[in-house]
Amino acid sequence: MLSIVLTICSPVALFVIYTAWSLFSNYLIARKVGLPLFVIPVSPENPLWLLLCHYIIPLLSYVPFGNGNFTRFGETGWEFREKARVHIEYGDAIIIATPGKNWIYMCDADVIRDIIRRERQGDFARPVELLAMLDVFGPNISTMNGADWQRQRKCTAASFNEQSNVLVWTESLRQGQQLLQYWKNNTSVPGVSTMAKDTRTLALNVLVHAAFGKSFDFQGTHDKKITSGPLSYRDALALILENAIAILALGPQTLERLAFIPPLGRLSEAAKQFRKYMLDMFEEYTHSNDSMPENKLQGNLMTSLIRASLTDKLITPDEAIGNMFVFNFAGHDTTSHSLAFTFMLLAAHPEVQDWMAEEIRYVLGEKQISELNYSEFPRFVRTLSVLLETVRLYNPLLSIVKGTETQPSLLTVRGKVVTIPPHTRVLLNLNALQTHPRYWGSDGESFNPSRWIHSTPSGTSNIHDREYLQMNEHGAYIPWGEGNRSCPGKKFAQVEHVAVMVSMFRDHVIGVKRWEGESAENARERARGALRDSGMKLLLQMLRPEKTPLVWERRV
Ligand code: HEM
Ligand SMILES: *[C@@H]1O[C@H](CO)[C@@H](O)[C@H](O)[C@H]1NC(C)=O
Ligand SMILES: *[C@@H]1O[C@H](CO)[C@@H](O)[C@H](O)[C@H]1NC(C)=O
Ligand SMILES: *[C@@H]1O[C@H](CO)[C@@H](O)[C@H](O)[C@H]1NC(C)=O
Ligand SMILES: *[C@@H]1O[C@H](CO)[C@@H](O)[C@H](O)[C@H]1NC(C)=O
Ligand SMILES: *[C@@H]1O[C@H](CO)[C@@H](O)[C@H](O)[C@H]1NC(C)=O
Ligand SMILES: CC(=O)N[C@H]1CO[C@H](CO)[C@@H](O)[C@@H]1O
């Protein structure tokens, strides 16, 4: 009997002892660093904890002494709730000791710039093991460092060119109009409660068009039919992205072995289809030739990658497929969550809609939306500032992770030299940086896109021809990262966002569906509540946007 108890308990006991020991030795290391120190008894990188923390942490507040540092910093995404508060209270750098690694959070624009600049020298590299799971479809840009990465980055940067931006522009205009139609047509339901789902669909359609040159009409959540037979390219990708965590956690091989479990079988099928579609595209490309007529849309991301692989021999076909997956993965949730945040923010701020629509109407003039040329994109400064302001407050990646490897590195924080020990994570706390009163003044947490806009004085020309974007943000604004490792999809995201706004807000306004007898102000307050109710899943997102239905009306 005792031996049974022992065999069951000893692995658990060993784990507990090992965790306690790791935490203790990390604590000793962290103490020497000399930054304000917090202790968390679990590793934020533990996948089980990532899943469970959102349930466990809220319960802790009911336990005596539960309201300590663990509840404050234990849940992933705590940066969003804290914003700059923790740094105002304790300083620009804090260290959190955990059983895994020690985590340093940084909120000083100068130090952050220094860290990014020194990434190239190898002082603060992106920890590739955190992203290694993205390798499911082959090696890729995000999981590489050093020479391999530079070779890849050349090809990928070349893929995100103005040709692909034209595809993003035209398709986003088209999808935006269809989405508006869909939302307006459905008068049978009390407002649009599928907003966040529908922005996912739109983001996917734009991505598929820019990546592969394929076009799909927008289908709302209610129109979707379950199809049997082989999945279309788009549906395979949709399924993969929706279940990204499972695929990443299991990997394609394990997934295939577990395919007898029906939902996993379908997922495994989608992963296989996705790979097959991409291999087919390679085939097509080898049998065609570059001088062929424009029967396929040129300049999409896939053809750029295939060309880099087959014609220029810069990357292997496996690397091309791996990158394709990473583009889709990195470009989908980021843009769809940003759109969802923007719709909710605009519903809470009708005055911003009026301000933005003024510009849209001026630039469009008498033109149809579908006639709008990509060359007009730079004229939409107000419209773009709305996105800049959205991702200032709701940046999908709350923190950018860097870290030291086998060597310690020195940092100067506010005149004090700090030695960062080896194997330490260094997090650039963007959400804190982008709201800190030192950089943003007292209204750093409010949504005010006009803070980005200036205008050249005098002149008889129209105000909309004189306005330009500029922000004296003291380097405290990097939602897309900065430097060599920054987001290659930045312009992509901006072009998509502006085109969607243009196609929807010229003639329409969005608002919160009012409950019976509710005042407009109370309804807007509910939208602000939905925005506050955001948290970290894979990225920062609203947790329950469907509880706050939105309505569209014609602009009067
Ligand atoms: C609002 C939209 C977006 C935001 C806020 C965003 C933000 C970011 C950030 C913060 C990084 C990491 C930078 C770093 O580590 O320094 C990143 C990387 C990346 N993003 Fe985006 N992104 C967005 C949209 C997109 C889109 C639309 C695509 C592609 C279609 C894309 C593709 C990528 C890729 C491939 C990387 C990895 C780059 C590398 O490892 O060198 N992103 N993004
Ligand atoms: C949280 O950590 C800070 C800094 O180390 C410490 O001063 C404080 O006492 C801790 N709070 C609790 C409740 O343990
Ligand atoms: C409108 O919404 C209802 C219920 O949510 C759905 O059954 C119906 O198919 C939708 N109609 C359209 C035209 O999308
Ligand atoms: C490639 O293009 C050239 C010139 O247009 C044409 O003569 C040739 O037949 C093409 N080759 C293939 C395999 O299509
Ligand atoms: C759009 O703008 C580009 C560049 O200014 C120009 O070459 C092209 O002809 C324009 N297209 C249309 C349809 O006006
Ligand atoms: C990026 O890396 C290249 C070397 O690959 C270097 O020449 C360039 O200056 C770097 N750019 C930045 C902004 O650090
Ligand atoms: C699956 C796979 O090939 N992964 C590769 C990703 O990139 C790293 C770094 O170049 C390789 O070591 C892996 O083998």
From TrEMBL:
Residues the entry annotates as binding heme:
487
The identity of this protein, by name, is Cytochrome P450
Under the heading InterPro entries, the entry gives: Cyt_P450, Cyt_P450_CS, Cyt_P450_E_grp-I, Cyt_P450_sf, Cytochrome_P450_monoxygenase
Record family assignment: Belongs to the cytochrome P450 family.
Output the lineage of the source organism. Answer: Eukaryota, Fungi, Dikarya, Ascomycota, Pezizomycotina
| MF terms in GO | heme binding; iron ion binding; monooxygenase activity; oxidoreductase activity, acting on paired donors, with incorporation or reduction of molecular oxygen
Keywords assigned = Heme, Iron, Metal-binding, Monooxygenase, Oxidoreductase
Required cofactor(s):
heme
Q: Which PANTHER family match?
A: CYTOCHROME P450, CYTOCHROME P450 12A4, MITOCHONDRIAL-RELATED
* Classification via PROSITE patterns: CYTOCHROME_P450
Residue ranges that the Swiss-Prot or TrEMBL entry lists as coiled coil = none
Q: Which organism is it from?
A: Periconia digitata
